[in-house]
Amino acid sequence: MQIDDGPVRRITFDRPDVRNAMTAAVARELADALADLDPEEHDAVVITGEGDAFSAGGDIEAMAERAETTPEAYERVRTTLGRVAENALSAPVPIVAKVNGDAVVAGMSLTAISDFAYAGDSARFGATFVNVGLVPDMGATAILPRLIGLRKTKELAFTGDLVDANEAAEMDLVNETVPDDDLDDRVADLVETLRNRPTANIGLAKEAIHDNLGQPWRDGLRREARLQSMAYDTPAHDEGVDAFLNGRKPDFD
User: At CA 11, angle to CA 89 and CA 142, rounded to 5?
Assistant: First the structure.
């Protein structure tokens, strides 16, 4: 995995010979790269793949070589794929999946748990865990029903069927599908927009949205009020109000 740090942390799966299949080691590295994000230093994260695939999911050859008990498998999944999902969903900065090719199994899960996802029109998606006798993981069972609906989630999880990029956009798995040659520019435009927004406050909004998924609305209102009160006490709020009152664009550092 290649990680280029800066105001935008860029993470690239770099195993194109195996279509960027994800081993436990790769998942741990990805989880670590999503764990130490700081809105004071980072405006966004962009995740993509080298070559013609985003990620083809788990490494089947590595699966064949495993010899572990059920408790050992549980611990491995929780500390690898589970950590990726947990760190992505709780990251205080927006995460963008730039889906440059097929995103299946864990690749589709990663697309789902990202805050934004843009796909090239040649990409295909599939929760094909069932094809190797597995259950969707990396947060897929928690997020996909909320994102694309219960019936569509079951259809993909139970059949292992693939969908193309246009259908992925229609079901809200990705924000938008663009021609492959335009994908870099489209994501760059989004990242530029995000860099001109108050990152810490975006993190508060993300926390509120995720914490309230599936929760009673009264509890959600309390969480929302708590996070909004925190947002009121930020420099970004002061700058936004001042800019509005003075008829200028806000300058969020």
Answer: 25
> Rounded distance, CA 145 to CA 155, Å?
11
C-alpha span between 213 and 230 (Å, rounded):
20
Tokens, residue 64: 């064949």
The CA radius of gyration of the chain, in Å to the nearest whole number, is: 19
- How far apart are the C-alpha atoms of 155 and 150, rounded to whole Å? 9
Nearest to 196 by CA among 115, 240, 252: 252
Contact predicate 106/22, CB 8 Å = yes
Task: Name which residue leads in pLDDT, 59 or 68.
Answer: 68
Kindly report the pTM of this predicted structure: 0.90
| Helix, strand, coil distribution of the chain in percent, nearest 5 | 55, 15, 30
Question: How far is it, in rounded angstroms, from Cα 230 to Cα 3?
Answer: 32
Rounded Cα gap, residues 35 and 129, in angstroms:
26
Q: Residue range 200-208: average pLDDT? A: 95
Q: By the 8 A CB rule, do 106 and 137 touch?
A: yes
Instruction: Let me know: does 57 contact 21? Beta carbons within 8 Å.
Output: yes
In 3D, which of 161, 179, 181, 198 has the Cα closest to residue 121? 179
Note whether 224 and 208 are within 8 A (CB).
yes
* Distance from C-alpha of 122 to C-alpha of 53, rounded to nearest angstrom: 10
The one-letter code for the residue type at 104 is V
Please answer whether residues 44 and 191 qualify as being in contact, where contact means their C-beta atoms are separated by less than 8 angstroms.
yes
Say which residue, 68 or 211, is predicted with more confidence: 211
Write down the pLDDT at residue 60: 67
